[in-house]
Design a protein that fits this description.
This protein is of the alpha+beta class. Helix content is about 55%, strand content about 15%.
Length: about 90
């Protein structure tokens, strides 16, 4: 499945599913059809507050999960997203 088809499939799942956990599992199934992975940490994000909700993870070493999450927030990509939100909203949330 190509990127456009994957995005469309995930979009359909998001539009159809109201239960957060079932949505996450459906999205993971869709992604797994295109991308091989053996671990994940999947958090839904409230679009208004940017607060993570409904964490779902399958990682080889569960005690390392907090470190994995911390490292995600330290990446340049996440930093750029935060700066963009600040620019768009005009605040630091």
């Amino acid at each position: 499945m190509g990127p456009s088809a994957l995005l469309a499939s995930v979009g359909r799942a998001c539009a159809q599913e109201t239960d957060a956990r079932i949505l996450q599992l459906r999205v993971l199934d869709e992604i797994r059809r295109s991308v091989a992975f053996d671990a994940f940490a999947f958090v839904l994000t409230d679009p208004v507050t940017s607060v993570g909700t409904s964490p779902l993870a399958d990682v080889p070493c569960l005690p390392e999960l907090p470190r994995l999450i911390r490292l995600k927030y330290l990446t340049a990509v996440d930093h750029a997203r935060r700066r963009l939100r600040i620019a768009v909203r005009g605040d630091g949330r």
